UniProtKB/TrEMBL annotation:
This is Tetratricopeptide repeat protein. Gene3D superfamilies: Tetratricopeptide repeat domain. It comes from Pantoea coffeiphila. Transmembrane segments: none annotated. Signal peptide: none annotated. It comes from the Bacteria. SMART domains: SEL1. InterPro entries: Sel1-like, Sel1_AlgK, TPR-like_helical_dom_sf.
Length: 383
């Protein structure tokens, strides 16, 4: 059985290994490494040592050294749980959460127990559970009741996420950034930037993209005329809305830092080879009207297989005087349309690029050549 594509958070299990093997505690397990000596140690203690049971379960779950056997991993983790090993609660909860093995009525309890025993990363999954309450609960009563129920569940989820974020859990940090960036009730882009930056420092790709976006656009703390709202930046109540809006605009402009965004995205490209990072760097340079630099990013992305970079690179061959070529632009636009038809991807971004290409229809028309006059074609003089 082949090793499944596992989400990053499952790899936390790889860090909870036996203290006699600090190498494995500090680094992720590798499918190519030789763990024979460590496994022999774990097998020798599997009968009564919960750490050994937990560690062997990790090898079976990930399909390293052994053929993947999720049921064997489950059995070993249950044995370790019976001996009250905190990591085992967490690891079994992960396998069930990501449905690598069937969920049970005890799945949520795994994380609650792990948290109570000191595994703070488990708090992220309890926050996820509260978010499902927000999205799926069928609240009774009027709109005010629903609003209060939503607010209570959101407060609980943020409290759980904060516990996991405090120990550097990148998914919790990123989720807190998303909440503070997108939900109007608590929106605070400055606070979102704080969480995104912490996750980005750990090279978490979604957080790197989100932080780069805020650096490009600028960000402001949440403003409020309520002095008791301690989570917001206090604005005196005599300030009129226009002055508050002007103040926000100043703050946003001062926090814009496209070069810092480029540095972050360049790191995302170097570490993750993310084509989206190339496209975002191209977009930043295009906004600065540095079309040659933008074209270089788009072209690299195009060669790495990006459909969107095909269209954007074609546009650079029309608007950049140094590399202007209608022939190349026309060919790249044609490739984009062919690839788009083959992929059957239809989303707002692709529609926007299609409209962009159509807007250049007139500019792409070849200039008609003047006909050369042939001898004898001159106007005859009247007799």
């Amino acid at each position: 059985m082949s090793r499944p594509e596992l989400q990053d958070s499952l790899k936390f299990a790889e860090h909870y290994t036996h203290p006699d093997f600090p190498l494995y505690k500090a680094t992720s397990l590798s499918a190519d490494a030789d763990y024979s000596e460590a496994i022999a140690f774990f097998v020798n203690g599997v009968e009564d040592d919960p750490q050994c049971q937990n560690n062997l379960a990790i090898f079976f779950a990930l399909g390293i050294h052994y053929q993947q056997d999720l049921e064997k991993a489950r059995t070993l983790l249950i044995s370790a749980i019976e001996l009250k090993l905190p990591q085992a609660y967490f690891n079994l909860g992960l396998l069930e959460h990501y449905r690598l093995i069937p969920r049970t009525a005890s799945t949520l309890h795994r994380f609650t127990s792990a948290l109570s025993l000191g595994i703070k990363e488990a708090s992220y999954y309890l926050g996820q559970h509260e978010e499902r309450n927000i999205s799926h609960a069928d609240f009774d009563g009027n709109a005010m009741d629903r609003s209060e129920a939503f607010g209570d569940a959101r407060v609980r989820s943020l409290r759980y996420y904060a516990v996991a974020a405090d120990v550097g859990h990148v998914l919790a940090l990123t989720r807190m950034g998303d909440i503070y960036h997108s939900e109007m009730e608590v929106r605070d882009d400055a606070l979102a930037m704080k969480y995104y930056s912490q996750a980005a420092q750990k090279d978490h790709l979604p957080a790197m993209f989100s932080a780069a976006t805020l650096l490009t656009r600028g960000y402001s703390p949440r403003l409020s005329v309520t002095e008791t709202d301690k989570s917001a930046f206090y604005i005196h109540e005599e300030c009129d809305p226009e002055r508050i809006t002007a103040l926000q605009a100043i703050i946003i402009e001062k926090t814009r830092d496209p070069e810092a965004a480029i540095t972050l995205l360049n790191r995302a490209w170097n570490i993750h080879r993310s084509v989206e990072a190339l496209e975002m760097m191209g977009d930043i340079r295009k906004e600065e009207k540095d079309y040659r630099a933008a074209g270089a990013f788009y072209m690299t992305g195009m060669h790495k297989g990006s459909i969107t970079c095909l269209a954007k690179c074609g546009e650079m061959f029309l608007i950049c005087d140094e590399i202007r070529s209608k022939t190349i632009a026309r060919d790249l636009f044609k490739q984009f349309k062919t690839r788009l038809a083959e992929s059957r991807i239809l989303n707002p971004k692709m529609l926007e690029l299609t409209e962009m290409i159509n807007s250049y229809k007139e500019a792409l028309k070849p200039i008609p050549r003047k006909k050369k006059k042939v001898d004898g074609d001159s106007d005859k003089t009247a007799e």
